[in-house]
Amino acid sequence: MLQLREATIDDLALLQRWDEAPQVVAADPNDDWGWATELLRRPAWRRQLIAELDGRPIGFMEIADPARADDGYWADWLAAHPAYAATPSRAIDIWIGEADALGQGHGTRMLQDALRLSFADADVGAVLLDPLASNTRARALYARLGFVDIGPWRFGDDDCQVMRLSREAFRSPG
After folding, report:
1. Could you count the other beta carbons within 10 Å of the beta carbon of residue 128?
2. Does the pTM exceed 0.85?
3. Which domains does the chain have, with CATH numbers?
4. How, if at all, do strands 148-155 and 89-96 pair?
5. Which helix (H) or strand (E) holds 52?
6. DSSP per residue, 36-51
């Protein structure tokens, strides 16, 4: 069974190891998450979650309010897209840290759980994702789940493809 729990400072070594895993580097090559600091913070605009399969940590997710985030990651994109910025949203980062857990549907289930958590807030009208433009496999998964390709955007050193799922298009699996 897949379950989510809040990430804590006790996950520091695990997350630092995952940061070096080839599949994580391929999906998120240039971000410095600052784990030692960020795992101690609990800002109201963000949740950091560890996905566990039968009690074994396999992946990580962050669900954030891009308009309230104090790191400014989404600020330029929101300023350039006022029509989208007007809708309260969440942004999700997600990855599988354990290589032997890849390709088994766990990432899909993690994302579905993140979407349910995001849309549980009645004010949230959309969810944003920013996969690398080169990550066609992830983008295809997101499209199957109803995400619409909004267009390219450069976040820092990364060429990404912003994708958006509206509340109306969200299909919560049984």
Report:
1. 23
2. yes
3. 2-166 (3.40.630.30)
4. unpaired
5. strand 46-53
6. HHHTT---TTEEEEEE
